[in-house]
């Protein structure tokens, strides 16, 4: 899953070498914390949050049903 998120985000940004995805597990919640270059932040979030919402939907669909998946963008 981490590789899937990295691949999607790296294809969106101008500085793919700055993309870092960390995975944190807390109970039944699996959180992916996404860090990108500050100039690429808008490309990852998109207008009205459409891009990050789509990334979250893909991550949720690819996850096991017993786990809740969150994707956060870190500044």
From TrEMBL:
GO terms for biological process: cell wall organization; peptidoglycan biosynthetic process; regulation of cell shape. A probable RNA chaperone. Forms a complex with KhpB which binds to cellular RNA and controls its expression. Plays a role in peptidoglycan (PG) homeostasis and cell length regulation. InterPro entries: KH_dom-like_a/b, KH_sf_prok-type, KhpA. Belongs to the KhpA RNA-binding protein family. It holds the Pfam family KH_KhpA-B. The gene is khpA. Forms a complex with KhpB. HAMAP family: KhpA. It is found in: Cytoplasm. The keyword Phosphoprotein does not apply. Keywords: Cell shape, Cell wall biogenesis/degradation, Chaperone, Cytoplasm, RNA-binding. The keyword Iron does not apply. This is RNA-binding protein KhpA. It comes from Thermolongibacillus altinsuensis. GO terms for cellular component: cytoplasm. One of its GO terms (molecular function) is RNA binding.
